[in-house]
UniProtKB/TrEMBL annotation:
<keyword id="KW-0433">Leucine-rich repeat</keyword>
<keyword id="KW-0381">Hypersensitive response</keyword>
<dbReference type="Pfam" id="PF23598">
    <property type="entry name" value="LRR_14"/>
</dbReference>
<dbReference type="InterPro" id="IPR058922">
    <property type="entry name" value="WHD_DRP"/>
</dbReference>
<protein>
    <submittedName>
        <fullName>Late blight resistance protein homolog R1A-3</fullName>
    </submittedName>
</protein>
<dbReference type="Pfam" id="PF12061">
    <property type="entry name" value="NB-LRR"/>
</dbReference>
<dbReference type="Pfam" id="PF00931">
    <property type="entry name" value="NB-ARC"/>
</dbReference>
<dbReference type="InterPro" id="IPR027417">
    <property type="entry name" value="P-loop_NTPase"/>
</dbReference>
<dbReference type="InterPro" id="IPR055414">
    <property type="entry name" value="LRR_R13L4/SHOC2-like"/>
</dbReference>
<dbReference type="Pfam" id="PF23559">
    <property type="entry name" value="WHD_DRP"/>
</dbReference>
<feature type="domain" description="Disease resistance protein winged helix">
    <location>
        <begin position="791"/>
        <end position="860"/>
    </location>
</feature>
<keyword id="KW-0611">Plant defense</keyword>
<dbReference type="InterPro" id="IPR044974">
    <property type="entry name" value="Disease_R_plants"/>
</dbReference>
<dbReference type="InterPro" id="IPR042197">
    <property type="entry name" value="Apaf_helical"/>
</dbReference>
<keyword id="KW-0175">Coiled coil</keyword>
<keyword id="KW-0067">ATP-binding</keyword>
<dbReference type="InterPro" id="IPR032675">
    <property type="entry name" value="LRR_dom_sf"/>
</dbReference>
Amino acid sequence: MEISCSSSRSCFELALDYLRCLHDTTKGCGYRISKLEMGVRLLQSFDLYLTKCRRRRRNHETCLDQDEEEKDVTSSRIQDLIIRRMQNLEFACSGSPDSTRIASELTMFLKAIKLFFETDINESCINYLLDCYWLRDPELVIDFIDSVSENLKEINNFNFKRLDEQLMFLKSFIRFAMLRGVEGQQLIDLLIHTEVASINALRLASIWLSEGIRYNDPEAKVQISRLISEKINPTEPQVLETYIHVLTASKLSISSDTSALEKSKQTVADFMDRLVQNTAELLQPCTSTPVPIMNQMLKIVQGLRFLTILLGDQEKFKELWHEMKNIIGVVACDAAVVIFSLSVNQIEEGLAKETDLALFHLLKVLKLIRAEFTQVYPLTSVSGFGFPRTNELGSIDFFLTNLKELARHDEINDSIASPVDKIQTIQKDFEFLRSFLEKIKEQRNQNEKLQVFWSHVMEIAYKAEFVIDSTLVGDRREYCLDDVARDINVLKIEAQEIYDSISYVGETTKGVTKTFTRVPSQVTVATYNEDLVPLDDEVKTITDSLTRGGSRQLDVVSIVGMPGIGKTTLANIVYNSPSVMLHFNLRAWCTVSQAYGMHNMLVQLLGSIDSEKLEQYEKMDENDLAVKLKQVLLRNKYLLVLDDLWDTKAWYLLERSLLNDANGSRILITSRLQNLSLQFEPHSRVHHLRRLTDEESWNLLQKKLFGKEGCPPRLSGVASQIAKSCRGLPLTIVLVAGILASTAKDCWEEVAKSLTSSIVLDEEYCMKTLELSYNHLPDDLKPCLLYFGAFQEDKNVPVRKLLWLWISEGFMRKTEEKSLKDVADDYLKDLVDRSLVMVSEQRTMGGAKACRLHDLVHEFCVKKAKEENFLHVLHSQNGPFVLTSPSNLHRVCNPMNGELMLEFSNVRSLLLFKGDDLGFWLPELLRVLDLGELEFVAHFPMEVFSLAHLRYLALRTRKVNFIPAAIANLSRLQTFLLRGNKADCLLPNTIWNIKTLRHLWTPDSTLGFIFPVENLEVSPGLDHLDSLSLAIDPSSQSLQKILTKLPNIRRLRCTMTESREEPTGTGDGIFVFDCLSQLESLTLCFCHGYRFKFPLNLKKLTLLATDPPWSEISTIGKLPKLEVLKLLSYYYSSPGEEWEMKEEEFPKLRVLKLSHLRDFRRWTASSDNFPRLEKLVVHDCENLEEVPSCLGECLTLEMIEVKRCRQSVVSSVKQIQQEQIDMGNEVLKILIEKCVDT
């Protein structure tokens, strides 16, 4: 490649192309080449400035020619350096390239660039340049910003990312000013100001290249913060003056022609978006802001977000009046003036009168635009068709509970014209109406008048809730509390008339079948993996197809059949059968479904091969995952299961990553489509899964209903008839078993009649059975089932998250005997008992960890939830979302854009599962908000603090070090889930004011929340807090005081905030937890070198990289209720070489896990240790010699799992299994993986 200055392409572009090519072909030089590419780009940016800037006519006119010559000379020297060094590099790479020689030349090239920066482009040179030259042309300035930005983006450092964002703000400001017609001195001042900031940013990037500033380096942080505060943020008077002059000129240049705005709406939207970010950054550190001021600032943020989304919607923007379009540009100017004029001190201490008036005026205009939009696109009103029709009495109960809480907390501000006495009257009236609805609920389906009355009560209840909740966020509605009171009075009169016309004494319910009688369930609960398809011949056929005979080439075997016939269950049985596990070196499972992606499929496959690396795989990009899968499969005989395949495209996506080593590897596919596999593999074997025979159907129904006891003779006739009517479909059989299990036995004939009442196709028959199962559910279980429709099909649903959501939605009713959590557990168990929900993962302490639905059940939930206006799942990003009838969206899952939220501002629950940007317009009445994979970097999204009714908040953040004090606005918040932050997060003092908090949690086990320690003595406690991820400062003496503020905590995870480096051994403190009398589960991370006092109530203890000595473990063994103990050591040494257990330790322990205990060699125990042990897990204990033989006497033992240990450990485990068999216990299973002596 010939590099010269006269080339049609610049020497910089040619050099970068050559370096990219060199990076792909040369090993061992990647880091040097990357650094060199950075250096070339930096020089390119400086050269761009030198070649485009022009001399300034100020105080240097006497030496202008000399200055111009120096500038050109510097530019020529930069280009000469690139050309010369590239020629040397090309020479080093010619002929027979020597990697050492190439590396040496790359190093010399990089040194030459660094030296040039130090001598020719240092701070004094830059100051001289800025004093004598300028770009002046706005487009040239923007080009220069883009060039600098490209360099900053290449630096993997948060501080430089922040600097890049600030330059993008200046760019948007210039574009906005140009759009508004600003010119002359005001524009020139802004351009000069931007040039200064940009070239200084470039200088800092060159320092990073020269000095290798590391991540979070204090010097880099200080220099960048100084540049931002002095040259970009309007905290400096001169900067503020420049900005205000530009904005004033923007307002004065208003034109009646709005065509420019219509063509460049995105420019205004970008500027507004930057203003929102600036406001959020301004509000973040505010710790003692008066509530009215904070609320006003949040309304500005909310208003600007609204306008940003409105500008992005072509059709809606067109419909606005001409004058309103003009106002939007002025609002951007006014908002910028207000925001730029504020400081943290002003916000906390009180606004100046002039600023206060400007703020008041701005909010008034924003409200006017909202009102105008509402006229063009009227917000859907609460109508008879608009409210959810699922568990309506439960909805009224939830409304009444909220009214009682409202009265108790006295949360209605005196300034709001909705006095407490009116709300209390509404509460009493609805209590009367609620009791009346209870009396007529069995009759209303047979009486049209009662149906109309019922619907009218529900309509007014939702209207009342809407009006009251809107009032509490300061949003007055046309339909007010007086209207509610009037409508309620009409309902009370109507109720009295109905009561007088109906006799309740001795009257039996008409037309209601007895099948709704609810009895305690006797169903045999199955987990997702349990054998429910009694087809031994089918299992053998598929197993033989995979393991016996056949071609050595990679082959495909398909299981096909209609929905509900048991394809996935059969594949799962085969997948986990001992013969298949022994035959294949690797096994992997992927559930494809209709909505699939290459990245997700690869993660599933790799994760099922090595689950410990799942989080690592999720962060890798698609290409790297494909390469990794090839590496893992190479020279291994593997079995891959592709479950629920719908089309050939998914296969072709994966096929590129699959290897054919001619070693007998196999692909097992399940699909509803009969000949799908033949389309991409003509010679594949297709197995059509048969239905169950009548006898098999009867046996399965008995197994589900009666376990080993068998069906009582008096029921065998009707039960057998019901089994036959299920058409040999396993899913139908288990669903019907769920119905029968909760139905009085003398009513089973009614179920049989319902199942045979019509002739439909098989798939429709499954849906009909599901409808019957749903109708048999108690009302309070129906919303719990339909809520599964919000989750993705064929995905595991974390039970803890599910229950937290149910509680936040108000589905649970607290009783005197049980907490909301216990009620939610019971509800889930009931759904599992009815075979509507499958348990896919079990907890070590018992109960479900994850669950899922059969895809047909999920399909039913989505459809039924939409029918009853309970939940709307949005699938398409391209097509418009159309409602078939007048409606209010109550719950929305996966909205693809913010425009939808503009039209349905009454949404109460918003759930995302993707990373799509909403535009971030959030309906003010939200109770539940989960923003899924949408990530907020460095700054907490202040918009959520406007959501006064919020009960559940789940966010993904990165590098957010503290939660703003404004979180106290969320006075009803119950659950706060913070994902992905990668840093401990400091809570504000105001956190103690959120008395409703139940869960403060981070999924990352190494991170937590840091509680404030100021004024702990006078801070109120969080009496309802149940689950907490806590970060402990080892230097603080406040841990004990903090724990006393959390008296009812049941689940606690503590992580040390200090460095994760090797400990110094100075930690000799004691962490005391015995004050937490309700604590059941405790996890301690990185608490190496400390001792502990545990509460006697503790049931589960996990020690991660904590490693107390074995003597301390013996103390733990005396805890009377401990059921689960996990000792996990990943970074530090293990507790010691020998664990010699003492008598009567761990009397109730059921699960013991030992992992990565590298120094652990000998384990001595006696027969009275672990009398109730059920599961033992030993992973990566590479020096352990054997497992104690006395475990062979433990009659409760069900599973031993050993991975990456010595063969002597494997031998001892097999000996224990044999002893168990000799004692008559054939329940014990052992799982051995990757155990080879090194």
